[in-house]
Design goal:
- The chain has 272 residues and is α+β, with helices and mostly antiparallel strands.
- The chain has 8 helices and 12 strands.
- The chain has 2 domains: 76 residues, RRM (RNA recognition motif) domain (Alpha-Beta Plaits, 2-Layer Sandwich); 117 residues, Alpha-Beta Plaits.
- The strands form 4 sheets. A 4-stranded antiparallel β-sheet has the order 2-3-1-6, sandwiched between helices. A 4-stranded antiparallel β-sheet has the order 8-9-7-12, with helices on one face. A two-stranded antiparallel sheet has the order 4-5.
- It is globular.
- The relative contact order is 0.11.
Length: 272
């Protein structure tokens, strides 16, 4: 498309009007933009590091690589064959899938038997090679952001706070698994573990834990503040004090809404 030329000494009234009609971003809007950009960057980092199993030494021994670009119609067998056909025997795969279809999400971690094999997988002989119609990008995984977050100083506990907010939960973790990880710090209240779920009863990766006493919540937050101090199913979780109250609209694993103790007592009284 071509536009008519405008002489330099003749200002364009339409462009002047357009510039005047577009207000400059306010400080609040700039702050929101920066915050949104930071969240996007953190989400990308979480994708690259979220499925790292911290119970084994594959990270420390440089046996793990991060891969992206897998065809969405491929499967674990195809991914394994891709590496083994290039003389890179695979020890294990950690490939996230979509919750509704079970198909690969296109990225994941591959663990080899040795650091030498992992180095070979990152070389030009394997990296950037095609798998079907897509090219696979292979690199060393980043240090989990959770480890960096947990090195922050623990903030002061709100007076009487018995609730903690937990994020970075594995999507396959259930209430029993979270309870098992947290009950070492003290007694957990009735309906004390609540995982946020969508309408399909799939976990959103975060939730709440309610303890019987405030000191139990403090112990959990302090332990989680250490690098890999608190894990659920081998995945480090971020824990902080929650000053509000967990919503009763949370769904249980069977899809039913969580009911408060008051609701249950009221039903029993009505039956009597």
């Amino acid at each position: 498309m071509t536009f008519p030329e405008v002489e330099d000494d003749v200002p364009s009234s339409s462009s002047s009007t357009d510039q005047a009609s577009v207000p400059s971003p306010t400080p609040e809007k700039k702050k929101r933009i920066r915050k949104k950009k930071r969240k996007i960057e953190e989400a990308i980092t979480d994708i690259k590091t979220g499925d790292i199993d911290t119970n084994d030494d594959s990270m420390a021994n440089n046996k793990t690589v991060y891969c992206e670009g897998f065809p969405f119609d491929s499967n674990e067998t195809a991914v394994r064959e891709f590496f083994e056909s290039r003389n890179c025997p695979v020890n294990s795969l950690r490939l996230p899938t979509w919750q509704d279809t079970g198909r690969l999400r296109g990225f994941g971690h591959v663990v080899f038997d040795s650091a030498e094999t992992a180095t070979r997988a990152c070389s030009n002989d394997v990296n950037k090679q095609s798998m079907g119609s897509r090219y696979i990008n292979i690199s060393r995984p980043n240090v989990p952001r959770q480890e960096k977050d947990n090195q922050k100083e623990v903030r002061s506990q709100p007076q009487g706070c018995r609730f903690v907010f937990v994020k970075n939960l594995p999507y396959d973790a259930d209430e029993n698994g979270v309870r098992e990880a947290f009950q070492t710090f003290g007694k957990i209240g009735d309906h004390g573990v609540r995982i946020s779920r969508n309408q399909n009863s799939d976990s959103k990766g975060f939730g709440y834990v309610e303890f019987k006493e405030p000191e139990f919540a403090l112990a959990a937050v302090k332990q989680a503040s250490k690098p890999f101090g608190l894990t659920v199913s081998g995945r480090p979780v971020f824990v902080d004090f929650e000053e509000g109250k967990a919503k009763m609209s949370f769904r249980l694993a069977d899809g039913q809404f969580l009911k408060s103790q008051g609701d249950e007592k009221q039903k029993k009284q009505q039956k009597r």
